Amino acid sequence: MPLGHHVIGCMNFISVLLSIPVISAGIWLSMGAVNSCFKLFQWPIIILGILILLVGLAGLIGGFWRITWLLVVSLIAMFALIVLLSVLIGFIYMVSMKGSGHPEPSRAYLEYSLQDFSSFLRQRVQKSYKWDRIRTCLSATSICPKLNQTFPIALDFFNAHLSPIQSGCCKPPTQCGFQFVSPTNWIGAVNVSADTDCQQWSNVPDTLCYSCDSCKAGLLANLKVDWLKADICLLLAFIGLIIAYLTSCCLRNGKTESILARYKQGDSYT
Question: One GO biological process from the UniProt record (predicted)?
Answer without folding.
Answer: auxin-activated signaling pathway
